[in-house]
Task: structure prediction
Amino acid sequence: MSLRLGDTAPDFEQDSSEGKIRFHEWLGDSWGVLFSHPADFTPVCTTELGLTAKLKDEFAKRDVKAIALSVDPVDSHHEWIKDINETQDCVVNFPIIADQDRSVSELYDMIHPNADDSLTVRSLFVIDPNKKVRLMITYPASTGRNFNEILRVIDSLQLTEHHKVATPGNWERGDDVVIVPSLQDEDEIKQRFPKGYKAVKPYLRMTPDPKVNWGGE
Result:
């Protein structure tokens, strides 16, 4: 049975470019981004891992750990990392899981036989500190991921985790947000949203972003 939002992210122990990884222990109390790649030494993956390395500070601001996966062995990962660092002008600063036996790929349903029966598709999971799956995105092998969108979704998840709001389409940090329909008590609304709100419709109430400080900025 495939994973669904809100499920506990499966734990596993597997070799990686940074040694043996026990996933839940490695995550600790942090958020996590686990993302798979079809294979080592592939062009799109090389650019994606370079981008991830360059976004280290952005992930750190959000208390997020990144970890990649490929079905190739550790020795291959180490050689590939040399290419990534050279071609993308970066230093890979996160582990790449060596999933030769496809055990992690099967746990996370990363192999889609109708696309390719041996390689992983571009699956990505955002996992919260309680080890719950909060986001799943799957791209075809031919399309690189938009890491700005991944950061945007993490911002939304972390905001809505602690405030009774939802984020509208194309929302970016600092934009107005939506007060959740379940919140109807006006005294609580005033307390939670001292800047007030605009009722576009009874079910659509917009209020300024309640988070003052984003990621230590």
